[in-house]
Amino acid sequence: MTGHHPDPEVAPTGRTGPDALVLETSESHQGLQPREQTSPEELRREVGAVLRLPEGVSVDPTNIDVERSDDETMIINMGPQHPSTHGVLRLMFELDGETVLRTKPVIGYLHTGMEKTAEELTYVQGCTNVTRMDYLSPLHNELVFSLATEALLGVEMPPRSDWIRMLLVELNRVSSHLMWMATNGMDIGSTSMMIYGFREREMVLAFFEKTTGLRMNHNFIRPGGTAADLPDGWEDDVMVICDTILPRCDEYDELMTGQPIFRRRTEGVGAITAEEALALSLTGPILRSTGVPWDLRRAMPYLRYDEVEFDVIVGTYGDNFDRYSVRLNEIRESIRIIRQIVEKMPAGDYRVQDRKVTPPPRGRIDESMEALIHHFKTFTEGFRVPSGEVYVATESPRGELGCYLVSDGTPNPYRMHIRGPSFVNLQAMPLMMRGGLLADAVAVCSSIDPVMGEVDR
Amino acid sequence: MLFPSRGQYAGLVEEYRQQGFETCSDLCAVDYLTHPGRNLPDGVKAERFEIVVNLLSLSQVRRARIRVQVPESDAHVASLFPIYPGVEAMEREAYDLMGILFDGHPDMTRILLPEDWEGHPLRKDFGVSRVLVQFKGAPGPR
Q: Tell me, what's the pLDDT at A110?
């Protein structure tokens, strides 16, 4: 540690001069710049004038207050370690009094080069890496990576593995949305909601622990199926979760939905239109809250989503309250799906019986030399994937979670790119905040539901 | 899947948008330095970098993938920002990690790495252990 510096004009690295400390701590161009240092093009982006909107609605790009003096506005910083920024997110605001003019999210504080790491790991190991990206819905990350690998391999999955995967990701959606309900409640002042949300999420995590061995970062869904079958008596556990959480959703309704303070803090705050959402590539509950019924589970079904019944929840106004309602009702829909999965779960293999992809069962290793070799090869070298490239997308709790995978025929991915929904959705922040109050910043940020592990990767 | 040249790229994407591809769901860059022999249609010259764009049409429920070859010596392409403002962060990420410049992007700065970072880590010639883990104030590497 460098300790305390008595002379403020000497920065820790020995640079001197009045600007030394500013230079040391500033991130220069990445942050929000004063108006006179910002190009008109960039300024237009910050005020949302570049979006494709019907004429008459859109902001006239020539009519933006580019010449406005800095003396009237102030740039302030929130984060990177603010209790309500959902991770290490830094937001910079330009304020006119209490009104927010421009917003810029500054990200990258959790960047650990996971896409580079993926190139060093085999396909067998890959899931341990991707599962750490969106740590609130790890099973979705594992699923999208496994689906992409299987698409390159061209293997046909046994039905039971599809249904097990669906069960797990839907439970994960419930736990992720419950976590969002909890943190959103806390962000706008309802600490009881935080306790309740975490309490219910714990039930789902306990089931995950029983099934996968871990509460988070499971590495359970793998290319070729799942790591193990569901534990004995899983139906009862899942039904208890469903029977508990469904009535609790009605309790949340009572606590939050009709509450006047909650409604005044969410209704009409951070509203966006469907055109704006599409232009900004937003997906998931944010897009649906604007009234676009787009859910990849329905529109482009993967796994067995075409065999279960559920409704796609849409909002109307695209404000914070709609995003809240969409997520609350998606918990109910997920529980509806989970009940159908419990009914329809077929018997059979939980992983594909292809020795090149799946390691042999433990019992076979003791008696068969060949099985031992296969086991050894799978876990040391990994399996080879035919060269090619593929883009697979799934609906994660936050939106379209995509995986672009390039293979060169070796056991390691040549390039793995994850299209993180939070990374893209965070771009909506400047638009949602424009003209709003600083006090709503935390509520708006929370309603985007960013997970910084996925934003920074 | 389409393989336009760099000159055709922005025009083709604009054409697709008018055909009903409302949103650009993904944009990323790939470095083919150590895997030059990939399958490309006739007439497309393989270059070191590739920009891969995934467009999505909600009304027609289909996707389109566009792959543009970008040479190493002149690593820049037109920005899709005027067509799809949502690629803003994705193009910054491609610039940051792969070092490809996007002409016409309003804010071509690093997004994930610090501003003073040297190099572009997702390039294949950027070694994995090239940057040592350093802590502030700790003695430097031996």
A: 86
Mutate to test the interface with A, among B67, B96, B110, B111 (most CBs of A within 10 A): B111
CB contacts of A406 in chain B (<8 Å) are: 30, 35
Interface test with A, best of B54, B96, B108, B112 (most A CBs within 10 A): B112
Q: Are B4 and A381 in contact (CB under 8 A)?
A: no
Min Cα separation B7/chain A (Å): 23
Say if the Cβ atoms of B121 and A113 lie within 8 Å.
yes
SS3 call for B47: coil
- Where exactly does CATH 1.10.645.10 map onto chain A? 114-456
Q: How far apart are CA A291 and CA B55, in angstroms?
A: 21
Closest CA to A76 of A343, A441, A324: A441
Residue A196 CA neighbour count, 13 Å, CB half? 20
Cβ–Cβ below 8 Å for B111 and A41: no
| Tokens 């900004």 belong to residue | A280
Tens of pLDDT, residues A405-456: 999 888 899 999 999 999 999 888 888 888 888 888 888 888 988 888 888 8
- B-chain CB neighbours of A427 within 8 Å are 86, 88-89
- CATH T-level assignment (fold) for domain A114-456: Cytochrome-c3 Hydrogenase; chain B (1.10.645)
Alpha-carbon separation of residue A234 from A43, A203, A237, A241, B128 (angstroms) = 55, 13, 5, 11, 43
Look at A391 and B107 and tell me if their CB atoms are within 8 Å: no
Count CB pairs under 8 A between chains A and B.
119
What's the pLDDT at A24?
55
Is residue A71 within 8 Å of residue A90, measured between CB atoms? no
- Determine, for residues A111 and B112 on separate chains, whether the beta-carbon distance falls below 8 Å: yes
Tokens of A410: 């070796």
Cβ of B30 and A406 within 8 Å? yes
Q: What three-state secondary structure class fits A405?
A: strand
Residue of A nearest to B30 (CA): A415
Q: Is the pLDDT of residue A17 over 50?
A: yes
Query: What phi and psi values does residue A31 have, to the nearest 5 degrees?
Result: -80, 180
End-to-end CA distance of chain A: 27
What is the rounded average pLDDT for all residues in chain A? 84
Helix (H) or strand (E) holding A221: strand A221-222
B58/A278 Cβ within 8 A: yes
The CATH architecture one would assign to domain B1-142 is: 2-Layer Sandwich (3.30)
